[in-house]
Design a protein that fits this description.
Elements: H1 2-6, H2 10-26, E1 30-32, E2 40-43, H3 49-62, E3 64-65, E4 81-84, H4 90-103, E5 114-118, E6 124-127, H5 138-143, E7 148-155, E8 161-162, E9 165-167, E10 172-174, E11 181-185, E12 199-201, E13 204-206, E14 209-217
Antiparallel strand pairs: 1-2, 2-11, 3-4, 4-5, 5-14, 6-12, 7-11, 7-14, 8-13, 9-10, 9-12
């Protein structure tokens, strides 16, 4: 608990973690997934088939090779393609509103939604969504809204084989199902980075996988200047 006293935002992270957890438990069509050390939920059919298909087409239009906050010596660490959804497209506004309404987190705390596409063989090896102090990017992330709290990921299509989202330490493996949202807390009950949130996008074995991801911050988010 000493970190809570020394970190001015730890109390907020504790409170938003507990608040969203209880909100999800009371929300129809949302299930808590049994997990070791991790609060994780699935909301079934958050998006319609038509909404998913529209967003997939937009991802195909704008996709570029995915990047990393911190360089990796492994060229196979993240091999997907990504893009930020444009809020000039009406369907993206509808999708963002649905995610914000589900979580109840203040919309200003949410980053721009990122779209991701995984072709056969592509993957994202185990990583955490929270930010690690003592890194080159930490200062700029602090300026842009601070630590990430919750992650919301929506599967836009069923995948023929592979492509599960795997939490190895929490002992959870989730198969993509079109329209379903996966939501987890990157912080622990004390508002500190939770190592049980380590996860990976497993290699796609057949077909193509499309997802969108929205991250929430401890403070209102502002983009980092290029």
């Amino acid at each position: 608990m000493n970190n809570v006293v020394s970190d001015p935002y730890a109390l907020y992270r504790m409170q938003i973690g507990a608040w969203v957890k209880e909100r999800m438990k009371r929300t129809p069509n949302v299930l808590q997934i049994p997990a070791k050390g991790l609060d994780i939920f699935v909301a079934r059919d958050l998006l319609t088939r038509d909404e998913c298909e529209q967003v997939m087409a937009l991802i195909d239009k704008d996709r570029v090779p995915s990047g990393l906050l911190s360089p990796s010596g492994d060229p196979e660490f993240r091999t997907s393609e990504s893009c930020h959804l444009r809020m000039t497209d009406r369907v993206n506004i509808v999708v963002q509103d649905k995610i914000n309404h589900l979580t109840g987190i203040q919309p200003a705390h949410g980053e721009t939604i990122q779209g991701q596409r995984y072709a056969p063989g592509q993957q994202f090896k185990p990583h955490n969504d929270y930010f690690h102090p003592n890194t080159d990017y930490w200062e700029s992330m602090q300026r842009s809204g601070g630590q990430r709290t919750w992650t919301a990921m929506v599967f836009l299509n069923d995948v023929e084989a592979g492509g599960q989202t795997w939490f190895p330490d929490a002992n959870v493996r989730v198969t993509p199902r079109q329209g379903n949202l996966l939501l987890w807390n990157n912080m622990d009950e004390y508002g500190q980075p939770n190592p049980y949130s380590l996860h990976s996008g497993m290699p796609v074995e057949a077909g193509v996988k499309y997802v969108i991801t929205k991250w929430y911050r401890e403070r209102p988010w502002t983009p980092v200047p290029a």
